[in-house]
TrEMBL record:
Residues of the Immunoglobulin domain: 16-103
UniProtKB keywords: Disulfide bond, Immunoglobulin domain, Signal
The keyword Disulfide bond is assigned to this record: yes
Protein name (Swiss-Prot/TrEMBL): Immunoglobulin domain-containing protein
A Pfam family of this chain: Ig_2
Keyword Disulfide bond appears in the UniProt entry: yes
Cellular component GO terms, alphabetical: plasma membrane
Biological processes per GO annotation: immune response-regulating signaling pathway
InterPro entries: Ig-like_dom_sf, Ig-like_fold, Ig-like_Receptors_ImmuneReg, Ig_sub
Length: 139
């Protein structure tokens, strides 16, 4: 990739609705740069995975941007992202990294009401694990 070192301002990156997204929910990355950008690229940390967008829109008199949408995040989407853009005659510097965290939602397993009643549990010392709802939390 050919770059004009220092000639183009660094892009910025943000995520909507934020950088901590519940599993299965959508997220949109927005890359911003100067007016006249031909294409934005959203890269993963290792640069082996990226998406290009030629759908560049104007944000103001001196700024343009592009959006990259993920409909339903998975644990595989978690990680570091950054933007770069192409404005002839070359590529910009990279933006700072943005870290996307994918948080699993708490899941409560619904047990029959009879199992929630302590009298339905066998009489053994200590709590009966099958008599209380379970909570599973993942990150």
């Amino acid at each position: 990739m050919e770059r004009e070192m220092g000639a183009l301002p660094r892009p910025s990156i943000s995520a909507e609705p934020g950088t901590v997204i519940p599993l299965g929910r959508p997220v949109t990355f927005q890359c911003r740069g100067p007016v006249g950008v031909y294409a934005f690229r959203l890269e993963r940390e290792d640069r082996a995975k990226y998406n290009d967008s030629y759908n560049v829109f104007r944000l103001g008199p001196s700024e343009s941007g592009a959006r990259f949408h993920i409909d339903s995040v998975s644990e595989g989407n978690a990680g570091l992202y950054r933007c770069i853009y192409y404005k002839p005659p070359g590529w910009s510097e990279h933006s700072d990294f943005l870290e996307l965290l994918v948080k699993g939602e708490d899941v409560t397993w619904a047990l029959p009401q009879s199992q929630l009643n302590p009298r339905a549990c066998p009489q053994v010392p200590g709590p009966c694990p099958s008599c209380y709802p379970l909570s599973v939390s993942t990150l």
